Every structure is written in C-alpha cells, then in structure tokens.
Amino acid sequence: VLDVLASANTGFRAPNVNDVASFGVADFRHEVPNYNLNAEKSFQYQAGFRIHAEKFRAEFVTYQNNLRDLICNVASTYNGLDSLDGVKVYKKENVNKAVVKGMEGEVNYQPVSWLNAFVNMTYTLGENRTRNEPLSRIPPMFGRVGADIKFRNSFTWRLELLQAGKQDRLSSGDKQDVRIQQGGTPAWSVVNTRLQYVYRNFQVNTGVQNIFDKAYRVHGSGVDGIGRSYWLSLIVKI
Question: Burial letters for 2-38: b for 16+ Cβ neighbours within 10 Å, e otherwise?
Fold first, then answer.
C-alpha cells in the first residue's frame, strides 16, 4: 500500500513571559524587557509518502517552514548603557525573516516474526534571511539504527546506535553562546541496549545507555550527554 501525503498550514507563536519581561544575565548577554513584541508567524508546507507491506514499512517527508516576525535577541541599550556590569545588553525584537526546511525518513523491516530492524534519519537546514546567516541552534543530521529480537514471545532485546553529525553552521549568536564550543558541536555516536520482559500485566525493562562511555553533547543543549549508565523499570498495567 502506498499513501501520498501533502499538507499546508499556517501558525503563530505569541510572545511568552520570558520573551517580553526577561531581565538579567542569560548565557552570554544581559537581557532587558520589551513589552511591545508581536507574535511570530509561520507558513509551512510538506509532502511525502508512506509504504505499508507485509514485512516492510517506510515513511519519508520533506517540508519547508517560512517564518516572519521572528523574535530574536538584538544588541541594545538600557538607560543609555550598552552593557551592565561588563555584560552586553540585548533586547528581544521582531526583526527577522527565516526559513527552516528539511526531511525525515524511517524504515522498518521484519523478515521473520522474531526480528525487526529499523533506521530513521532527520536533516534540518535553517537560514536567517534577514541577517543572511544560519539560523540559531539548528541540529545537525541525526538518526538511529538498530534491531529488536524476540525470544519466546516474552523477552525482547534491543540494540541501537544513535548518531549525530558535526554542526559547524553557526549563527553569530551561536558563536557567542557559551553552550556551544568554538568551531561547533562535534559529531558523536552512542550505543544503547535494552532487555524487556512481559508477563501478563507486568513489564520489566532493563538496559545500558552509552555502553562504550563516549563523551558527547546534543547541539545547543549546554549539557554533556549521560555516560555509561544502567537502569531498571517495572510497569504494572491495571
């Protein structure tokens, strides 16, 4: 079965309390309030397809989202001063037009009842058309590949590889952001495993994250990813 998908929609994001009233040091800047912000507006369209077969499923979507009145931090002054306590003053304003476009794909293949292999990928490109530079904090290409193996209909073992490419397409704000290292965020890959046991209304899950204890950071998060760790959970369905 082949399904063809297409859609178009509009949207907006009203300024939140942080947008209009933030006052103080945030990251590399000193933010001051702006109570006259307008909503950000968007127009998005997308197209793709979905395939369903007995042993094979796949989905692919590509999209573009055009943004206007984008709220961004702009160098400003406060009581005539361009810095407070040595930190540059910034204020949020509706100044930018931008576009975010990309594609997402996913494939599942189940050659036999006890084995299911999967892979997915996401690619995003963001452009600030007003400033003619990359849009801030756009993630690099990332994805996952792995397999689930079932044993006696009660146990399921999963092994998966998570990967993200290097992100060195940085906006001027990204280059000043202390959460993003100089030159951009390096590529990384992490291997996880999980074992699941199901018995009637009980489900027990246990696993190991980041088996090889690799150092990594999700782009723009400001926090290093978790090292090798072990976890256990119990779910009871009533």
Answer: eeeeeeeeeeeeebeeebeebeeeebebbbbebeebe
The residue-averaged pLDDT of 187-213 equals 96
3-state secondary structure 35-99: CCCCCEEEEEEEEEEEEECCCEEEEEEEEEEEEEEEEEEEECCECCECEECCEEEEEEEEEEEEE
pTM, full prediction: 0.84
Which amino acid is present at 221? Answer: S
Strands 56-75 and 29-32, by their bridges, are unpaired
> Tokens 């090292």, residue?
227
Query: pLDDT value at position 89?
Result: 87
What is the Cα–Cα distance from 204 to 234, expressed in whole angstroms? 5
CA pair distance 197, 146, nearest whole angstrom: 19
Confidence grade of residue 188 (pLDDT, cut at 50, 70, 90): very high
What is the structure's pLDDT at 38? 92
Nearest of 196, 194, 206 to residue 158 by alpha carbon: 194
Rg (CA), the chain: 23
Question: Within its chain, how far is the Cα of 205 from the centroid?
Answer: 25
Distance between CA atoms of residues 106 and 196, nearest Å? 23
Least confident of 4-8, 129-133, 187-191, 208-212: 129-133
Residues 6+ away with beta carbon under 8 Å from 11:
41, 42, 44
Q: Percent of the chain having pLDDT more than 90? A: 68
More confident residue, 99 or 22: 99
